[in-house]
Amino acid sequence: MAEIAKVCSSPHWLELLHDAKAIHPELRIVQLRKNKLMVGACDLYVEKNSGEILVVEWKTMSPRPNSELMNFAVQNGFTQQLNQYLRAVRALKPQAQVTGWLWFTKSEKLIRFGKVD
Fold this sequence. Notes:
The chain is α+β, with helices and mostly antiparallel strands. The protein contains four helices and five strands; from the N terminus they run H-H-E-E-E-H-H-E-E. Strand 2 and strand 3 form a beta hairpin. The chain starts with a helix and ends with a strand.
């Protein structure tokens, strides 16, 4: 419970939820892509009052102390996973500004992805 309380009081959590119109945890995402069905669940889907959509994946593992977060995320397949969710959401909401976020909860590090192809 202490870890949940820590996450919920984190400035990152507050930033992500600020001005939210809709919040959907564990949102199921399904997309047919090149004759393959992609099925997953993003950890958090936030739709802001501005229309911006945030797709958030959090990871409880901590990168090595001196590792560069982006390299760590790529090596562990986190960016590929987030990329799939972003493509699916953008296909459903082509007019929306959709951004992806990776949040390492234990180390309290947050990475924002603008345009991921």
